[in-house]
Specification:
The chain is of the alpha+beta class and about 400 residues long. It is built from 11 helices and 18 strands. It has helices at about 1-10, 25-75, 85-95, 205, 215-225, 245-250, 280-285, 295-315, 320-330, 340-345, 375-390; strands at about 20, 25, 100, 115-120, 125, 130-140, 155-165, 170-175, 180-190, 195-200, 235-240, 255, 275, 330-335, 350-355, 360-365, 370-375, 390. A hairpin with a 2-residue loop joins strand 4 and strand 5 (about 125).
């Protein structure tokens, strides 16, 4: 222990001077040299520390700003909306649309057609508010218009077309109604007394009337029953005896016949394009062989072809409309202002693809006596929506 203490003491007793390149530097000299170095080192250190603090502060500040921006752009988990809440809000918003789901034809008659929206096959529809709907009929009477002899001799409506005119774009759409379509028909006796409402061919309804205004009004009601209260603006009925005058007033109607007609010397050959004269037009629109099943269906297709060509010709030359009115006035019963309707023809648009037929099938009645046309319910629903409504969204 004594030796260790002595060694420590000897170290402590080493000369304070420092030799440098063979010379000895005194302790005072060392202190003088070291003191300015310490000061310089201290200043430099302070600068470095200050710079580091400033950089660190700036970095933390930017991080804070970035975090704030990210937080602002990122939804808070505290306010997250559950799936159930989203669904609830969706169905609440959907319910505010005030729509009715259409599952059957009778759903159309529950409310006014123009109220709310309809849902069918996953799609929403709304009624075309600004439209006019007209019922056009061809009555199996070759004479000028006159009162019927009794309560059931008003004549059958062998041709029936429901036309719509969109008030916005003036587009025309038409639905050809098969004369044998089964609907509730109001039956009257010879004296005009109501008897019963039964399911019969729609063409019969015109017969139970006066052959004039009353017959037309009852036909409109039958069509409304078929289309579940479709709003009808007006009607026009022409006795078929007026067809030759109508056809000749426009200079004939050109078609490529879809069926040969030799009745009454018409000389019409299928596939041979010709400009029909008055008598040919009458035969093409009127003839059917009642011994052949589906003859009314084939005649309806011919009527569609002729009406489509006639409308197209009149709209291309609107002045023809007034000629038709003048030529057929003795054969027509109408609730509409014909001159005004004719004047508006110049603004109308027509596409032959917009002439529809009620989907369904023809079958014989239970006694195998008469042909009956039964509309397909789902097809009828879609037809109503396509013609009288427009898709939403």
């Amino acid at each position: 222990m004594k030796d260790k203490k002595n060694r420590v003491k000897k170290r402590e007793e080493k000369p304070s001077g420092i030799r440098h390149k063979g010379s000895e530097v005194s302790p005072d000299r060392v202190r003088i040299i070291i003191r300015p170095a310490w000061v310089a080192a201290g200043v430099l250190g302070a600068v470095i520390i200050g710079l580091g603090v400033w950089l660190g502060y700036s970095f933390l500040e930017k991080q804070s700003i970035y975090a704030t921006e990210v937080k602002a752009d990122t939804p808070s988990t505290d306010s997250a909306v559950s799936v159930d809440e989203v669904a609830e809000k969706y169905f609440a918003a959907r319910d505010e649309l005030h729509y009715r789901e259409i599952k059957s034809l009778n759903d159309f008659s529950d409310e006014k057609w123009s109220e709310g929206m309809l849902l069918f096959a996953g799609r929403l529809y709304k009624y075309r508010d600004n439209q006019q709907v007209y019922l056009f009929m061809g009555v199996d009477n070759d004479h000028m218009v006159s009162p019927a002899a009794d309560g059931y001799s008003g004549g059958q409506s062998d041709a029936m077309f429901l036309l719509t005119v969109n008030g916005d774009d003036r587009e025309i759409k038409a639905i050809a109604i098969n004369r044998n379509t089964i609907v509730p028909v109001d039956v009257y006796d010879k004296d005009g007394n109501f008897q019963v409402r039964g399911d019969f061919q729609i063409c019969l309804q015109h017969g139970f009337g006066d052959g004039m205004k009353l017959s037309c009004l009852r036909s409109v009601e039958a069509v409304q029953r078929l289309f579940r209260n479709v709003p009808v603006t007006g009607y026009l009925a022409i006795n078929m005896g007026g067809v030759p005058a109508l056809n000749d007033a426009v200079g004939g109607v050109e078609i490529t016949p879809i069926q040969s007609i030799s009745w009454r010397g018409a000389g019409i050959e299928e596939g041979e394009t010709l400009n029909l004269d008055g008598e040919q037009a009458y035969a093409y629109l009127r003839y059917r062989n009642t011994d052949e099943f589906g003859s009314a269906d084939r005649r309806l297709e011919r009527q569609k072809q002729y009406i489509t060509a006639l409308i197209d010709k009149v709209l291309k030359t609107p002045s023809l409309a007034n000629k038709i009115i003048d030529a057929t006035s003795d054969y027509v019963v109408a609730s509409v202002d014909l001159p005004r309707l004719a004047d508006s023809a110049k603004d109308m648009e027509f596409d032959s693809d917009k002439v529809y037929t009620i989907p369904g099938e023809t079958r014989m009645d239970e006694n195998n006596e008469y042909e009956c046309y039964y509309p397909d319910e789902l097809g009828m629903i879609q037809l109503i929506l396509d013609v009288f409504y427009e898709p939403v969204g």
